[in-house]
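Most newcomers find our protein records easier to grasp once they have seen one. Nothing more is needed to start thinking about how sequence determines fold. Here is such a record, shown just as it appears in the course material:
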Amino acid sequence: MRRPRGFERIIARFGFAIVLATLIGLGLPSQRAHAVGGLSISNPDGGAVRALVIGIDDYQHVRKLKGAVADADDIVSSLRTMGVGDIVELTNAQADRASLLREISALVERTKNNDLIFLSIAGHGTQEPERVKGSEPDGMENVFLLPGFEATPAGSVQRILGSEFNHFIRQFELRGAKVIFVADTCHGGGMARDIDPRAAEMSFRQVPSYTLLVDELKPVSDRNDPKSELDLDHTAFIAAVDRYTKAPEVRIPGIDGLRGALSYAVARAVEGSADTNHDGKVTLKELFSNVRQVVYQLSDQRQNVVTISSPTQTPETDVAYELTRGVVLIQGPTAGPASVPAGAPAPAEARAAASPPVAATAAAAPAGAAPTPPRATPTPPRAAAPIRLAALDGKTSYFPGVKPQDVAVQAVLPTDNPDLIWDPSSHDVIAWGDVVAYGVDVADLPTVVDRTAAIRELKRMATKSPQVMRIWPDDRQQRSGQTVEIDLSDVASRAVLLFNVSGDGTIQMLYPVGSDVALARSASLRLPLRVREPFGAEQVVAVTSQQRMPELENVLTQLNRRRASGQVIKNLERFLPADARIGSIGFFSVP
């Protein structure tokens, strides 16, 4: 078997230099503890927070979906956990047109000045020719399909036009409210990356185009309706993909079944993960950046979230929502505690008391140096779900000797939602439409299985506090000899560790190497890499912190060129600083 080489690092001695890009800053995180427990979401303008959440799987006449209702349930659960009381959820048959229009109209009537409105829909989408000429750049209007839709006169009524949502959003704005609209659906038919034809069928939130010979829909509208999203004043839009890309339903680490990556990311952002600098205020920029990165990672780079804010908004400074923590006020030696109502501002003394104290025994830092971030408390080992392995021909007799080190393996049929599919003819290993590794013998499958479990865990870690990173020039398959660039944002004065996990689990240290500086000197770090064999999946992982991470750096150096993906996970759990951000993105190479 060929010795794995992975990437060729392009550095100065090869006539190239690491490029330090332009400033993209969100601010450095503080060391204040931050967890969902005890947090409440609040409106920075002082009004109420209200929500209408829609999720549709059970379509009667078009292909059913698998995770949209779970998406709606997740967002509703997060909002309730964070103290929001006015929530209406419509799922499956509840989300017919009459019910949806009734509930959104009632929500408009309840809305007061300075309220914050969450609107979320997960389900099928499509496009139709625009009704208002000039309202869309390509002449096509986004449409959201409801459970009873079909291309018949009666079935044509069961859909909602994008312009109708804009109509209701304008009604919220006229009442003095701000709106966050989340569309976990897709309207275009393209793909960011081709799917291997041997892969299991993927689920997408888009239906084929259709023709309505008779359209009985009577749109809700009036003369004050905005022509497009850009004509609204106080609304932020978050869409799963652009107008030309399909949105897949994805696997979320630790969660059964399929989900929408956008809805999952929004639910975690609501719970506080978008508060990048831990100041209790989530700006539109923080929200957009967090959701965009989490979706990018969870979808294996098949989705690039689109965010739009109204022209009157300033994403860098406009606060989408605030996070407050209920605290206990001690009235006196004999008095019982009194809880501050959720969402109410806490007195300055109480806020100070709620912050965790700095340990008095901490070693003194050198003069002028930033304090070393406390190490995260290691979490006890969790029972990892087995990796489901299938053979393309449906036989399970190949796998009795497949004994991975770090996770159990379960032999299943190709139709049983496998994590990996092994082709007994070519010996290629396929996962979710991509070839993970080429020419893998049965004896070498355990390392690929262990690698799959490690990537699953890396994605879980990266969702909690993501490090923004991107692949350039694009997220399509890369060929031998091509140069790709890994671009990390918001890393000024942060220590950076960058490594690769190849398709067979081989670790490759990428940064720092040799004379690389320990701390990034600019807000962006762009690292050029040249693609080399073996081909298949590459998972590039970035870990950043306010201080250099010598233990992790030493471990990664020792594991360099070794098939040791499980060891990487164990050492990340052991040595990861509390302020660490993790980015975990994959791309795929072919000969």
Q: What stands out?
A: DSSP finds nine helices and 30 strands in the chain. The chain has three domains: 7-24+459-590, 39-323, 387-449. The first strand starts at residue 7 and ends at 9.
